[in-house]
């Protein structure tokens, strides 16, 4: 299987993104009702970007990441913040190498696409101990527990440095 990441720029791929995430909305581990989940899924189409992970051989969508520049609380004017709204990969494909490849693609694209970005942030369920373990491996990642959610933030430079550790030329 050959997986490829790319930024969605066409309405047809936005349709695939929406269909894919709606089919898997119960697996997103977002502790919200459906209407709120839908707003997180759709906001990257309106205010940000969508990155897709596709099986090139089967032409099948296997994962998606949606993010926005700025935050809704500040009417998306705080462009120094990149907020990940949703990230999902089919469970059968989840692995550390794929996670790192996706993270590397994401940080490289954001760095080129919006020079203002200094911070990456996102929210996750506080009950998802698997994610807590995963993100605790990134030394510079800061986590704050806010009720049933964990708020994570890290500088873009620190996240790029973390990725670079795994992709150094030998």
Automatic annotation (TrEMBL):
Name the record gives this protein: Uncharacterized protein
Species the sequence originates in: Ammoniphilus resinae
């Amino acid at each position: 299987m050959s997986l490829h990441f790319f930024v969605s720029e066409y309405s047809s791929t936005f349709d695939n993104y929406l269909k894919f995430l709606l089919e898997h909305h119960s697996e997103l581990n977002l502790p919200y009702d459906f209407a709120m989940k839908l707003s997180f899924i759709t906001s990257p189409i309106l205010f940000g970007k969508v990155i897709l992970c596709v099986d090139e051989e089967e032409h099948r969508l296997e994962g998606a990441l949606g993010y926005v520049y700025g935050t809704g609380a500040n009417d998306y004017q705080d462009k120094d913040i990149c907020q990940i709204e949703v990230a999902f990969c089919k469970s059968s494909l989840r692995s550390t190498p794929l996670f790192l490849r996706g993270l590397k693609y994401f940080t490289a694209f954001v760095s080129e696409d919006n020079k203002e970005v200094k911070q990456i942030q996102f929210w996750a369920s506080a009950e998802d101990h698997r994610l807590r373990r995963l993100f605790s491996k990134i030394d510079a990642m800061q986590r704050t527990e806010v009720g049933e959610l964990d708020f994570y933030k890290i500088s873009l430079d620190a996240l790029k440095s973390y990725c670079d550790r795994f992709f150094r030329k030998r």
